[in-house]
Amino acid sequence: MSVPSLLRRRALSLLTAVVTAAGLATVPSTASADVPTLVVVRDLLLRDNIHVTSSHDEDSPASWLNEILLSGTKGGLTARSYLKFDMSYLPEGVIRAATLRLTGLGAPACGPAVGEGVQVRRVTEPWSGDFLHWGNKPDSTDEDAQIATKGVTTQCAVYPDQVEWPITDIVNAWAGGADNHGLVLQSPDESTDDGLWAFSSWGNPAGAIPVLTVTMDVPSAPYTRASSIASHEDGADTWVAGLTPRIQSQVVDAAGGSLTAEFEVEHDPAAPGQGSGQIWTATSAPASSFGRPSVLVPAGLLEDGWRIRWRVRAHNVTAGTVSGWSAWNSGTVAADVPQISARQVVPSWESEGSTVSMSLTPELRATVTHPLLDSTRVVFQMAYDPDAPLQGTGLIWEKTVLDVPSGGQAVVTVPDGLVDGGLQVRWRVGAYGGPFQSGWSDWQKLTLDM
């Protein structure tokens, strides 16, 4: 069976800075002299790890549930540990260094050099942790193999401790086209009785999973995607919500760095009678790669009914690079939003600028009209009157009415037992439809009396 999804999620949570951009190549290439590069450090995703010993056979195969990885020879027992990392998430660039790092849990002795140590080799055949035993273990090559001799035991001053292997050449071989069947940890000479090393696996409760860190020079190539503006789609028409809409876009660069989004808004050439050329441009605050910076169009620039269009491009401030402009998007500015009118309290009458109801459970009513949509969502709020602070403060009650037809009346009833007689409150209404909202109406005072 494969590694459970729970362990996979746990492994993912412990890795840092994993690249998730799709379609990025792993083949190293020398960057053009005129393309700035940034240093990128990635921890590769661990896909599988398991140890197999000479005692494992078809009837008793190795188990990926072990919390440790064993390597070496002792008392006639030989052990190897297999690990597989995912290279597909690396961006295109030049690999400068790669280091395999494991947490040592035990060794024949302490110190920086213990016996022959443990050798890391490149595996040359496919394998699976689902059914692995000594008889079907994959072959490997000693080409570019590396040995670490650091020893750790429970009696050492530092426990647990990290053991590292520089495997830059192995990772470059994978990036250059060699099949990535993973790595094997084994004794450099399995004919000797040099002892066993134990390392933490991804099943260890301590969470000290094996890590392969790759350092690269990655050419900066910023781009934007998923650009959007507050709007409503009505068939083939796009209505931009209000005179001060917010525009945002995702900015991405495999090289990392600090990125900004530059936005431009101009008159749509399809409506030449409304004006021409640029209306406004702005650059967002910096964000990291895959961030979603945004800007707000200032008041006083757009007019109701204007046809406008907008686009965006990404800047990598760290590398000094810039993307091309995105395609234009266009829409019609709709300053009109849901309109609230005919607010009423039933039953009630007006007295000295305040509404008085002889019921503790009156109806609150409002008529809502939307210029673009057939229906809206209407929200009623009731709060304590700040002019009568001794009675209470803050919100008392809120009620939402769904699917109110445009031009129709929304009605709610104050719940029985909510308030006492003589209470001074205030109430207001807000209406929402698509990305458009009316904003809250003014507060209206109300005295609830018997």
Mean pLDDT: 87
Largest sheet: 11 strands, antiparallel
Rg (CA only): 33 Å
Number of alpha- plus pi-helical segments: 2
Secondary-structure content class: mainly beta
Helix content: under 10%
Which residues sit in consecutive blocks of at least 5 with pLDDT less than 50?
1-32
Q: How much of the sequence is in beta strands?
A: over 45%
Q: Say how many strands there are.
A: 31
The quaternary state of the protein chains shown equals: single chain
**CATH topology of the largest domain, anyone?**
Jelly Rolls
Coarse morphology = elongated
CATH architecture of the largest domain: Sandwich
Q: What would CATH call the class of the largest domain?
A: Mainly Beta
Domain module tally: 3
Signal peptide: 1-33
GO cellular component, one term: extracellular region
Main location: secreted
Domain Carbohydrate-binding module family: 70-215
